[in-house]
Amino acid sequence: MSHFDEMTCLLYLEGQLDADHADGVRTHAAGCAECRGLLRALQTESVWLRESLEADDESVPARLVQAPEHGGAPWGWISALGLSAGGAYTLWSGFIEPWQAQAAQAGFTQGNLLTMLFFSGAFWKGWDAMRSLMEFLAVGTLGLVVMWLLRRHLRRTTALAVVMGALALMVALPPSAGAAERRTGDPNYSLPAGEVVHTDLIVYADSTRIDGDVEGDLIAFSRNVTVNGHIKGDIIAFSQELRVNGPVDGNVRAFVQNLQLYGTVTRNVLAWAGDVNLDQDARVNGTLTAGSGHLEMNGKLAGDLLAFTGDADINGQLGRNASIRAGHLTIGSKAEISGQATAQLRRPPDVSTGAKLGSPLDWTITKSGPETRYSSARYYVHHVLRWGASFLFGLVLLFVVPGFFFDAVKACGKTAPAIGFGILFLFAIPIAAIIVCITVVGLGVGISAMMFWAIAIYAAQVLVGAWLGEKILGEGAGAGAALGRLALGLAILRALGMLPFLGGWISFVVVIWGIGAVALAIYKNMRPQLAAAAVAV
């Protein structure tokens, strides 16, 4: 028998052929791979076309509001929602809440960490207005969702609503950022003694030396930064080495390889560095938060100490509490800790008998390694909860943007291009976002790009998992089949990620693979618009 054409296959799928003809088609498809593939493809297209037409005619798609069949509980949905709720609770109670409490103890009570890092100085003088804009956009987004659900009744007023919303956004835009002096070294920059900068100072140079005074913030992007003058605002430094000899009336935010503090800081110090050194003449009136490879504190700290470091040496004065997580802790004979000191260490601390402690050091040994992880039931429970959270994310992604979801899953099949683009975008997006943020004007664009980058990293496992499940179970039609393949693929990826030594590398490959698939899917959807724009030009 010759192969059937598409019309015969469509009539067969719709049940419009007579019994003899239908039996002939069924018998032929059982032994002909080509016709069987054609039937499967047409069946898939018919299902999705029917669902899309139904969704377009209804304010809420019927598949989302229909009640379950009598006697059949939606156990898949109940399990996914339960696991996602447990995952959210675990994330909050195990990670976010402890960090928030420790940050509050360290002096971050005036706002969240992101606000203090980037928006307390010259980076954005209009941050209060920007925060109000964010709240307004959240309410506006909720309103747009409601309008979309009720679009059949609001078709005549949609254009008016969009125009009014745009006008409201224009009114709510924050004022332009405050003025700041920008200096570029050739290749070095120096502010001479006696010279005063009456506003914020932003410096781009190979080496920066500040002998004069700055009445605002000092923001430095240099290999070496030396501050001998008086800084009346904050110091925000991205450099290899930062040396602060003069007084600072505000905070010190250092993202450096080596921080050396010899002067007085009126408020707080935040350092993410390889080495942090507080000289015996240094004084910090606020708190010290350090994430470093090595911490040496010989000066005086009036507030709390929060340290995540490889090794910590304390031989100075600490006015309040200390919370330390390190590989090893040494408390010297000149150390004075007025409050309570707690430490999580990998080996016992060395505490001098001459040290003055307000209360005995409360320290515990933390064990790490595959043996410890795999023997704990909590380890497996956390992985199950994370599977549930990722499945829920994939569920939302499937029903909100189904076209993009399937395009990205299909793009995972292009392994080499996806991994290549994934490596490029994994490192290029954060670098570009940081560069855009430095320009102040592009701060919103840079933060939005970083948020999209983070979402893409999390979505990578969902897309690769859906592709893997499809490869194992074969292609299927409808949302139910896609969810089943997604659940299976995510479970396999989660199990592979638990493997000792190889799990981290597998997860890394999945991330770059999925990000590349996202990039290919975005390009596929943008290609018609780009072609139309090229023709118009």
Account of the protein in words:
With 537 residues, this protein is α/β, with parallel strands linked by helices. Among the domains are: 57 residues, no CATH class; 48 residues, no CATH class; 99 residues, no CATH class; 157 residues, no CATH class. It is 51% helix and 21% strand. The strands form three sheets. Strands 1, 2, 4, 5, 7, 8, 9, 11, 13, 15, 17, 19, 20 and 22 form a 14-stranded parallel β-sheet that branches. It has a six-stranded parallel β-sheet with strand order 10-12-14-16-18-21, with no helix packed on it. About 13% of the residues have low confidence.
Helix-strand category: alpha/beta
The backbone outline, from C-alpha atoms, is elongated
Query: End-to-end distance, in Å?
Result: 53 Å
Find the count of extended strands (DSSP E, 2+ residues).
Answer: 22
Low-confidence stretches: 56-73, 106-131, 152-178
Our estimate of the beta-strand percent is 15-25%
Instruction: State the share of residues found in helices, binned by percent.
Output: 40-55%
Mean pLDDT: 75
If you compute it from the alpha carbons, what radius of gyration comes out, rounded to the nearest whole angstrom? 30 Å
Count of helical stretches: 15
Biggest β-sheet strands, sense, barrel: 14 strands, parallel
Attribute tags:
14-stranded parallel sheet; elongated; six-stranded parallel sheet; alpha/beta; 537 residues; 51% helix
What's the gist of this structure?
This protein is α/β, with parallel strands linked by helices. It has 15 helices and 22 strands.
